[in-house]
Every structure is written in C-alpha cells, then in structure tokens.
Amino acid sequence: MGKKDTKELLKFLKPFSKERAELLLWLRDFAWGLCPQANEIIYDNFNAVAIGWTPTEKLGHTICSIAIYRSNENIHFGFYWGNQIKDPEKMLLGQGNQYRYIQAKDKKSFPKTYIKQLVGEAYANSLAKVKDPKQLVQGLTIVKSVSANKRPAAKSKKK
Predict the structure, then answer these.
(1) Residue 62 belongs to some domain of the structure
(2) Would residue 59 count as lying in a domain?
C-alpha cells in the first residue's frame, strides 16, 4: 500500500461528517508532501482514527500525526515527540510528557508554513532515534490496529 491506496482509510472515515473527513484527507496529503520518504501508519481506534508518519514501522519514530476524534470530530495535527521541538510561536497545545498538537479547524486557518518548519525539525529528531539503519523503509501505508470490535456498532437510520 502507499499514499494512493485509501480504501481502508475511507472505510474508517465513514462515521465522520463529509467536511471533517475531507479536511483529514487534505491534511494527509499535506503530511505526505512533507514526509515523502516516510511510512504511513493508520490506527482505527475506539476513540479516534489516527494517521502517523514514521521513517520505520515503529510508533516510537513517529514524525507527525493526524487524529480525528469520534466524540466531537475534532482534528489534531500533532507531534509524537512535540516536547522536543521548538515552538517559537507557542502554537502547540498539550501539557503531557511528549505529545503536542494544533487543532485543525479548516484549511484556511491551518498554519501551513509554520507546521512545515515544525515537521522538518520533528523529522530530524525522528531519524536521530533510529539506531539501526536497516529499520528504515519508505512509502508504505500500514494498518496497525483496527478496533471496531471495541466500539459500539453504528445505529442504523430508520426510514
């Protein structure tokens, strides 16, 4: 699989509104453009659908990620090791030990130039964490976790 293979991702996005799914797909294209040598990891989790980019197949090497949450359809563009990158404009949210993110509300307000800068630094940090060059692979889409059995089935609409 790779960037052009969206079959499983589109299936995972069916429960979300068309507008939010379209924004997530736009952000996916944006992230692939910044990380063309990386791999995409898709998680269909009970509380969100998340996509991350990594130079290996390991979550611990994640450069950046996008997540859409089931409860409110909020979309985060985040950095797995966000606490280790400079954020001179203080746009990143999060107080945890490592993850930082920006809420993506729409294409127009998304700070593309600033995020490009942050992704560049995050990419370098990610590569520095890879100890064995044999782990480096590129251009794959990997579905790591599908959790449909952990969330309630969608209610059918009555006619």
Answers:
(1) yes
(2) yes
158 in a structural domain: no
The SS3 of residue 155 is: coil
- The answer to whether 46 touches 68, Cβ cutoff 8 Å, is no
What does DSSP assign to residue 52?
E
State the angle between helix axes of 112-129 and 18-34 in degrees (0 to 180), rounded to the nearest 10: 60
User: What tens digit of pLDDT does each residue of 30-61 get?
Assistant: 999 999 889 899 988 889 999 999 998 888 88
Beta strand spans in the chain (E): 39-44, 48-54, 64-69, 75-79, 100-103, 141-146
pTM: 0.85
Where do runs of H (alpha helix) occur along 14-111? 18-34
Where does residue 89 rank: exposed (0-12), middle (13-18), buried (19+ CB within 10 A)?
A: exposed
Domain count, the chain: 1
Please tell me what DSSP assigns to residue 46.
Answer: S
d(CA 159, CA 149): 26
Give residue-wise pLDDT tens across range 134-156. 878 777 777 866 555 444 443 33
Location of structure tokens 């985060």:
76
The answer to the question of residue 157 being in a domain is: no
Rounded to the nearest 10°, the torsion over CA 151, 152, 154, 159 is 180
